[in-house]
Design goal:
Shape: globular
CATH superfamily: Gcn5-related N-acetyltransferase (GNAT)
Largest sheet: 7 strands, mixed
CATH topology: Aminopeptidase
Helix content: 25-40%
Radius of gyration: 15 Å
Structural class: alpha+beta
Length: 164
């Protein structure tokens, strides 16, 4: 499994994974993502900003993660524990449903943490849809602590944080 910076050539595969994830979550009653978000414009911007990474094996992209410093304004209401100079934020972590359960999300989280340490970030933050119990369990299992809740277009999201 290789994790590398995404290229524009990867956009079609990334959008396909997102579409598959939307269908899979919807079948489980998780109404987190849709055709509005995340969309092609968001993915293209992530790639052009050099902020999206893909987990691939034998040229097949199996998972995606976006890493940057952008925090939605809703994050200002959260009582964060770590307020260092540099905070890394995880966005749009997803694994193609046909490859879920193989540890790819864990590899992407480990990559994010290593990336954060190498680039002098003090902590990682992210949010996860409250109805996406599997994702919430994944973050807690990896030492991310709940800090509070924010509300976006689709409902309530738990904000998590982990010291690096």
């Amino acid at each position: 499994m290789e994790i590398r910076l995404a290229q524009l050539d990867d956009k079609k595969a990334i959008l396909s994974i997102i579409k598959n994830v939307v269908i899979d979550m919807s079948s489980q009653g998780i109404n987190q993502w849709d055709q509005t978000y995340p969309n092609e414009e968001v993915v293209t911007e992530d790639i052009l900003d050099r902020e999206v990474y893909v987990a691939s094996e034998d040229t097949v992209i199996k998972g995606v993660i976006t890493l940057n410093e952008y925090q939605d304004e809703e994050y200002e209401t959260i009582p964060w524990k770590y307020n260092g100079d540099k905070i890394l934020v995880i966005h749009r972590l997803c694994v193609d449903p046909k490859f879920q359960g193989a540890g790819i999300a864990t590899k992407l989280l480990n990559f994010a943490e290593q990336f954060g340490k190498e680039n002098n970030y003090s902590a990682i933050r992210l949010d996860s849809f409250t109805e996406n119990k599997g994702a919430c369990r994944l973050y807690e299992k990896h030492g991310y602590e709940k800090r509070g809740f924010v509300t976006f277009r689709k409902g309530d999201f738990i904000c998590f944080e982990k010291k690096l």
